[in-house]
């Protein structure tokens, strides 16, 4: 007979259970943007929860940008589900990645997957405005920059490539994963004593990616971006 | 001369600015799991914000699973950064996708990208336990199920494929995108008057994907999963 397994009791705050109930309605599609939630008192009764728990849950959902509350009695009053702006997703994802315990290889793998797709899509679209923006960033990075300034523009370049892909959701996911690595990538630059040589190499790699995008060569753009990412991650993931 | 461009003033609540400041410390790596935040009063002074704003920010971070607060004065008291469990990311992402206004084509594109990668990785790994789980789900779906029950297992199957890919982060992203579509996918099933025929087709497609994974044929697994996803999304995205 197997020995009994004991684990700590999971304490879940009531407001979290209220959030879960509201989430179920959102995910099933029973509730959507523009819909009004029942008044606090009624919602508490429906869920068998205290008004305090309902109030806390609504405050959290409001902070997440999921609902909006208006005081008063007019037609606009009450708690309404709002369409979340895309960048709110990115912020929340970034926060989570910053404290989550995913192995470094998982983050690199996700980066490669998402950024390959973004580079390929950017090459297929060849949007002149997006390419002009990438060129601008390349030029800015040609200046005699220190690691911090270069790293900031590096993040902007990768996020701009993600943004040129024409799929806003994939762009947000890519940007969030890349941005969550900002600190680790800067540390990788700091660890290299011969900064000018590393900087030259990164510039060449970036230029190669942008040229492939400009030429509309999707597989080449994806391969070059993957090589660029992996070469740097070998430094920082060890 | 260009005409002046007017846009609405963006009102950002103070607690959001507090969250941003804490996020900066997390992303730069200056703060990490296990670290303690300064006491509320001190943090308010450091950030030039009200204690109310700090309290609200901490409540939101707590709801997101980023910090944990303990009352009292012991060594365990105060607000501590906790390593976020991977599934917390999935929940927050799901909530956001449920109310976000990404075009349907973006969601389909992200699904295809992530699920292709997951299926290919699952085929490369050929993990016997993961494959046994997929087989179990296929068998359960062979029963005479209504749309709701079938749809539940359908979600589980896709999430299980994502989970067999060996990259936990990609798995969580895939599961979140797939789960956020749960309601829309069920509606697609409800819209089909000849349910037994649609169910048979979905079963065949699922079986084909799992067989390719079992055979270790990564490109075939990815292609079959993409065809399966696109065929269904044509129904629901129109």
TrEMBL record, chains A, B:
It holds the Pfam family FCD. Signal peptide: none annotated. Keywords: DNA-binding, Transcription, Transcription regulation. InterPro entries: GntR_C, TF_FadR/GntR_C, Tscrpt_reg_HTH_GntR, WH-like_DNA-bd_sf, WH_DNA-bd_sf. One of its GO terms (molecular function) is DNA-binding transcription factor activity. Gene3D superfamilies: GntR ligand-binding domain-like, Winged helix-like DNA-binding domain superfamily/Winged helix DNA-binding domain. Residues 12-84 form the HTH gntR-type domain. SMART domains: FCD, HTH_GNTR. This is Transcriptional regulator, GntR family.
């Amino acid at each position: 007979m197997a020995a009994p397994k004991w684990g700590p009791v999971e304490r879940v705050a009531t407001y979290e259970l209220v959030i879960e109930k509201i989430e179920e309605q959102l995910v099933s599609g029973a509730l959507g943007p523009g819909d009004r939630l029942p008044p606090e008192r009624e919602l508490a009764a429906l869920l068998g929860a205290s008004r305090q728990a309902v109030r806390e849950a609504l405050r959290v959902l409001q902070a997440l940008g999921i609902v909006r509350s208006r005081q008063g009695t007019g037609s606009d009053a009450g708690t309404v589900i709002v369409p979340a702006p895309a960048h709110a997703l990115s912020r929340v994802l970034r926060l989570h990645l910053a404290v989550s315990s995913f192995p470094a290889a998982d983050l690199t793998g996700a980066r490669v997957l998402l950024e390959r797709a973004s580079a390929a899509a950017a090459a297929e679209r060849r949007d002149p405005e997006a390419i002009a923006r990438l060129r601008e960033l390349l030029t800015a990075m040609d200046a005699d920059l220190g690691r911090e300034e270069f790293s900031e523009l590096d993040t902007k370049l990768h996020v701009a490539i993600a943004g040129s892909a024409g799929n806003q959701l994939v762009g947000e996911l890519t940007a969030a994963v890349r941005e969550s690595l900002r600190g680790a990538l800067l540390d990788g630059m700091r660890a290299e004593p011969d900064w000018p040589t590393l900087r030259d190499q990164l510039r060449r790699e970036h230029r190669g990616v942008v040229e492939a995008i400009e030429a509309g060569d999707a597989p080449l753009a994806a391969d070059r971006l993957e090589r660029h990412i992996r070469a740097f991650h070998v430094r920082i993931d060890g």
